[in-house]
From TrEMBL:
Keyword Nucleus among record annotations: no
Family note: Belongs to the glutaredoxin family. CGFS subfamily.
Keyword terms: 2Fe-2S, Iron, Iron-sulfur, Metal-binding, Redox-active center
Protein name: Glutaredoxin domain-containing protein
Molecular function GO labels: 2 iron, 2 sulfur cluster binding; metal ion binding
Organism listed in the record: Papaver atlanticum
Biased composition (Low complexity): 1-14
C-alpha cells in the first residue's frame, strides 16, 4: 500500500504580515507589526519614542506629500474624541454585534478609560479579541474607526491622525506605542500552510483526489484559500482567515494558487466538492461553503456550535 505525507512551509509573522509605514520618529526607529487577520499582508508601524517625538517630527509628518485619495478617506474617519467607548465583554459573541471584522484603526483603553494603545488591523474584531485574551487588565474598552477603502496609505494616515490627535491632547505617546514596549506587539510563530505534494514534478503514487479526501477527513477544519494564512491573496480568503483567527479555532490552510506543491488542486477540488469558487472551508470532512456562508454563520452566532461538532 502506498504511503504519503503532507509537508508544510514555515512562516514567521507578527500579528499581521508586514508592509512598512513611513517613519515617524528618527531614522533608525525599529518597525513592528501587529495583528490583522486578513490581507493577506499585515500592516506595520513604527514604535515611537516619547523622548524623541517632538513638534518638529509631527510637522514633518503633516507636510509630507500624501495622495489625495488617502486624505479623503481619512477625513471620513472620526476623531478619537468624537467616538464613544465600547465596553469589551468577556463574551466575544456580544462584542461581534458592536465591533466589525473590517479594516481600520482602533484605540484600546484600560479600566480607568486611559488610552493604552492605538493600532491598525485588517480585522479589528480579531485584533481586539486577541488583545483581550493577552492583556485583559489593559483592554477594558475600545474605540473603532473603519477605513472603507483600506489600502496601505489610507490605513497609515488614519493611524497617524489618531496618534497626532492623542499627542496634541495629552503631550504623550500611548504607552503601548512607545519604543521598547512589547506588550501589544509580539512576534508569533504562524502555523505553516499544508502542501499536498513535495513538488510539481514528483510522480504521485495515489490520485490527487485521494490526497484531498484524506486531508479534509484527518483535520477538523481545513480552509482552501488563495495565498497563505499569513498573506492571503484575495479579499474573500483574507476574511475567512480573519474569521477563523477570531474564533480561536485550530485550522489548516492550503494555498490553491501554489502550482509548485499543489499543482492541479484548483480544478480537482471543484469537482471533489462540487463548489466552483474559492475559498472553501471544510469542517469534519464536510464542505461548509465559502466566505459568504462563513460570514453569515459568524453574524448569526453559529460558528461556536459548528466547531464543537
Amino acid at each position: 500500500m502506498a504511503s504519503f505525507t503532507f509537508s508544510s512551509t514555515t512562516a514567521i509573522t507578527s500579528h499581521c504580515s508586514s508592509s512598512s509605514f513611513p517613519t515617524i520618529s528618527p531614522k533608525n526607529t525599529p518597525y513592528l507589526s501587529f495583528h490583522s487577520s486578513i490581507n493577506h499582508r499585515s500592516t506595520s508601524f513604527p514604535l515611537l519614542s516619547s523622548s524623541k517625538f517632538t513638534t518638529t517630527t509631527i510637522t514633518t509628518i503633516t507636510t509630507k506629500r500624501i495622495p489625495l485619495r488617502a486624505l479623503t478617506i481619512v477625513s471620513a474617519v472620526k476623531k478619537i474624541s468624537e467616538l464613544e467607548l465600547i465596553s469589551v465583554s468577556d463574551e466575544s459573541e456580544d462584542l461581534k454585534s458592536m465591533v466589525p471584522s473590517a479594516s481600520g484603526v482602533y484605540a484600546v483603553h484600560d479600566s480607568n478609560s486611559d488610552l493604552q494603545f492605538i493600532g491598525i488591523s485588517r480585522n479589528i474584531y480579531a485584533s481586539i479579541i486577541s488583545h483581550r485574551k493577552s492583556v485583559p487588565e489593559l483592554c477594558s474598552s475600545v474605540k473603532v474607526g473603519v477605513v472603507d477603502e483600506p489600502d496601505r496609505e489610507s490605513l497609515t494616515q488614519a493611524w497617524k491622525s489618531w496618534m497626532e490627535e492623542h499627542i496634541a491632547a495629552t503631550g504623550k505617546i500611548p504607552p503601548g506605542n512607545e519604543s521598547g514596549n512589547s506588550t501589544w506587539v509580539k512576534k508569533t510563530q504562524k502555523k505553516p500552510d499544508l502542501r499536498l505534494t513535495p513538488g510539481r514534478h514528483v510522480q504521485l503514487t495515489v490520485p490527487l483526489e485521494t490526497l484531498i479526501d484524506q486531508l479534509v477527513k484527518e483535520n477538523k477544519v481545513v480552509a482552501f484559500i488563495k495565498g497563505s494564512r499569513s498573506a492571503p491573496l484575495c479579499g474573500f480568503s483574507q476574511k475567512v482567515v480573519g474569521i477563523l483567527e477570531g474564533a480561536g479555532v485550530d485550522y489548516e490552510t492550503i494555498d490553491v494558487l501554489d502550482d509548485e506543491h499543489n499543482f492541479g488542486l484548483r480544478e480537482k477540488l471543484k469537482s471533489y466538492s462540487n463548489w466552483p469558487t474559492f475559498p472553501q472551508i471544510f469542517v469534519n470532512g464536510e464542505l461548509v461553503g465559502g466566505c459568504d456562508i462563513l460570514t453569515s454563520m459568524q453574524e448569526n452566532g453559529e460558528l461556536a456550535s459548528l466547531f464543537k461538532k
